[in-house]
């Protein structure tokens, strides 16, 4: 398989120079790699060990993501009691403007999952703080580049066909949440820094406390102080900066091994770091924007209210499953990068296979639940029988999507953990935008399938991307991946640093 960046191979003598993974991440008690599978009992043991390691990381991250999702949801809920137009404007601001910057910044920060994870696995813990500082610098600069998206949100939304009054209010709200965007430049790198060390419990606690406090701040600013939309924006900014500051304080006080203070080394090799960050951002954004585009296409059908409403209900349910798999995505990225950095190719390989199997089982269970309740679950969202019937007609496509979306995030996490972002970005571009979207457009607009046709085309793009990535993972030479991880550490690791520079 052709990888985007490194071809270096190392000898067995070089391999011994790699540090063992920290004890909390050891695959076996003796600190070595998994031996080859030789029996059914051995297979069961590997599934047990890898499942414990996976969910110990994935569960707190998924809980943290749900809490962050709740911050957005409750902001919209409180705004909904101000007025319908205000609710629509804030929903558009958060789902279009803020979501675009969120996806791009998260993608840029995910380069840390590769570098911090592999450095931690190789025992070079002192490099984690330097990598995080480099990411801070890059993301803060990126935020300044994204400012026009917020400043000119009103004309942008008008250009996209939004009603004048909604676009104006959304633009005013977008300007007021600019501080929240800059908080992400601190928040995301600190998240990846902690995830690489499996210090994820603190992320869950910070997310939970921030969520609870956010509800209180919203009540205070909107209900007590009567600040209206300005109060909602202020609460949104305060809560997100609270999360970022809390994570930084934890790192400075309790992460002595991996945080050695601010360093000028953060400015070294920035261009190579930028390239990996951009590749990560493109890979992730191509996925996020692909699923956003289905709403845009659906909004131009003959009956857009029914089409968008039924699709939104399905996407809402799919989103809740997606929250879980964002945690799985981060967890498998940590597991793969840690094991590759430790020189454990079989442990990396087995962790991938175990995660794919377990995720597929969750996806199949979700599919069964959706099909079994296809005529009833829409009642949660609407009293309209016509809308419920439209949702029921889409249920089978939702079920298929849930199965695909249980596997796809796992493979994306493997790609990040292995440093394959550039390769996956090209695959996403081809499968999603050259194949999936055109097929969806043709089926949706040139046949009588409507929203079902659009969704079917996009499912095909996702299916094709998932199959290609599964084939790549199946054929991966994990010993070569260990060699490439070692080369990354030699290029950007502690051994390349002059002690006088620190």
User: Segments where pLDDT lies below 50 for 5+ residues?
Assistant: 1-30
Overall domain count? 1
The helix fraction, in percent, is: over 70%
Measured on Cα atoms, how large is the radius of gyration?
23 Å
- The topology string of helices and strands comes to HHHHHHHHHHHHHHHHH
Molecular shape = globular
Largest sheet: none
Task: State the separation between the terminal residues, measured CA to CA.
Answer: 38 Å
Alpha-beta classification: mainly alpha
Report the count of strand segments.
0
The fraction of residues assigned to DSSP E strands is under 5%
Number of helices: 17
The residue-averaged pLDDT reads: 84
Subcellular location: Membrane
InterPro entries: MATE_euk, MATE_fam
Keywords: Membrane, Transmembrane, Transmembrane helix
Membrane topology: Multi-pass membrane protein
Written account of the structure:
This protein is an all-alpha fold and 502 residues long. The longest helix has 41 residues, at 40-80. It has one domain (40-495). The chain has 17 helices and no strands. It is a multi-pass membrane protein. It comes from Buddleja alternifolia. GO terms for molecular function: antiporter activity; xenobiotic transmembrane transporter activity. It is found in: Membrane.
């Amino acid at each position: 398989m052709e990888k985007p960046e490194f071809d270096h191979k190392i000898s067995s003598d070089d391999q011994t120079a790699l540090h063992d993974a920290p004890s909390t991440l050891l695959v076996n008690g003796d600190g070595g790699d998994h031996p080859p599978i030789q029996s059914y009992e051995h297979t069961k043991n590997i599934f047990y060990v890898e499942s414990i390691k996976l969910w110990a990381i994935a569960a707190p991250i998924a809980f943290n993501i749900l809490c962050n999702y709740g911050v957005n949801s409750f902001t919209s809920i409180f705004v909904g009691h101000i007025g319908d137009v205000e609710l629509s404007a804030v929903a558009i601001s958060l789902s279009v403007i803020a979501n675009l910057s969120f996806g791009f910044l998260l993608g840029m920060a995910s380069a840390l999952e590769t570098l911090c994870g592999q450095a931690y696995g190789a025992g070079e813990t002192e490099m984690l703080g330097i990598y995080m500082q480099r990411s801070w610098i890059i993301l803060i600069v990126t935020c300044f580049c994204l400012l026009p998206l917020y400043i000119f949100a009103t004309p942008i939304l008008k250009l996209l066909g939004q009603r004048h009054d909604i676009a104006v209010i959304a633009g005013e709200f977008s300007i007021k949440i600019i501080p929240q965007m800059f908080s992400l430049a601190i928040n995301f790198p600190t998240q990846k820094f902690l995830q690489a060390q499996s210090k994820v419990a603190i992320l869950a606690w910070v997310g939970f406390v921030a969520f609870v406090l956010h509800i209180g701040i919203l009540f205070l600013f909107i209900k007590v102080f009567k600040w209206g939309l300005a109060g909602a924006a202020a609460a949104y900014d305060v809560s997100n900066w609270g999360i970022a500051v809390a994570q930084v304080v934890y790192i400075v006080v309790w992460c002595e091994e991996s945080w050695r203070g601010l360093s000028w080394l953060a400015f070294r090799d920035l261009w190579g770091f930028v390239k990996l960050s951009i590749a990560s951002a493109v890979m992730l954004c191509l996925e996020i924007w692909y699923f956003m585009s289905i709403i845009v296409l659906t909004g131009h059908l003959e009956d857009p209210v029914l089409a968008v409403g039924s699709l939104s209900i399905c996407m809402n349910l799919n989103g809740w499953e997606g929250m879980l798999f964002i945690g799985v995505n981060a967890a498998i990225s940590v597991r793969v990068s840690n094991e590759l950095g430790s020189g454990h190719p079989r442990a990396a390989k087995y962790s991938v296979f175990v995660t794919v199997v377990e995720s597929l089982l969750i996806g199949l269970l979700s599919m069964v639940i959706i099909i079994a309740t296809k005529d009833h679950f829409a009642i949660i969202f609407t009293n309209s029988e016509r809308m419920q019937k439209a949702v029921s007609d889409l249920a089978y496509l939702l079920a298929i999507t849930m199965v695909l979306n249980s596997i796809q995030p796992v493979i994306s996490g493997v790609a990040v953990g292995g440093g394959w972002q550039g390769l996956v970005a090209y695959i996403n571009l081809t499968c999603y935008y050259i194949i999936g979207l055109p097929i969806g457009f043709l089926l949706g607009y040139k046949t009588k399938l409507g929203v079902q046709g659009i969704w079917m085309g996009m499912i095909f793009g996702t299916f094709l991307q998932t199959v290609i990535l599964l084939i790549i993972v199946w054929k991966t030479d994990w010993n070569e991946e260990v060699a490439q991880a070692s080369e990354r550490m030699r290029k950007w690791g502690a051994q390349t640093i002059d002690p006088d520079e620190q």
